[in-house]
């Protein structure tokens, strides 16, 4: 990586939520430049410049030359970008000073190439577990990406950091046993079988409904007969009462 992206910055004199809001309204982003041996410097940078960095070949691993006026210059990289959790808009950027002659540790994206034989012919499922690996190198030697050919990967096989090809320009810092990807067996759905004895005890649909309906009808008929009998007894009582009244 040889390209250095130059961006202009202005020092922030006021540090407050109100001032930051005003910067964003003007198309700028509040930022801070951090350094190990130097003091942190609050600055403001153009939102368009930050977006341009993220669209560049090396994205957030790009080497930056941050200028303030004609005299102050910093070689830096993006340390962290903060986004608004509601809108995904960039609201703050942290930069870290670097020395082009000293190594840095950065996360580099992994790109998988090819279709594993374990997926193509062995009915396996590809699992992409770690999409970035930690790399140590000079800023000018940071790889854009780590490409891995996975076409020879069989079922139940994996690729770990220790399996990655070595390179003189950088070294892997991620633990050697970190699994990058693997081909796993697909999960099978288990269907519980119903024992024949239990199945025989289960009545056919509608078989139990008829007896239940008949049982329900029986009490209803008995109730109707009782009601009719009670009505007749009441009529007899009423007639007797009338007769007694006439006799008096």
What does the model show?
By secondary structure, the chain is of the alpha+beta class. It folds into 3 domains: 4-98, Ribosomal Protein L25, Chain P (Beta Barrel); 105-185, Beta Complex (RNA Polymerase Alpha Subunit, Chain A, domain 2); 196-247. Helix content is 27%, strand content 34%. The protein has 5 helices and 13 strands. The protein has helices at 17-25, 47-54, 117-120, 196-201, 209-247; strands at 4-11, 28-34, 41-46, 63-68, 72-83, 90-97, 104-113, 124-128, 132-137, 146-149, 158-160, 170-172, 179-185. The strands form 3 sheets. It has a 6-stranded mixed beta barrel with strand order 1-3-2-6-5-4. Strands 10-7-9-12 form a 4-stranded mixed sheet, with no helix packed on it. Strands 8-13-11 form a 3-stranded antiparallel sheet. A hairpin with a 6-residue loop joins strand 2 and strand 3. The longest helix is centred in the C-terminal third of the chain and has 39 residues, at 209-247. The radius of gyration is 41 Å and the shape is elongated. The model is unreliable at 207-213, 215-227 and 236-248 (pLDDT under 50).
Features:
alpha+beta; 4-stranded mixed β-sheet; Ribosomal Protein L25, Chain P; 6-stranded mixed β-barrel; elongated; 248 residues; RNA Polymerase Alpha Subunit, Chain A, domain 2; 13 strands
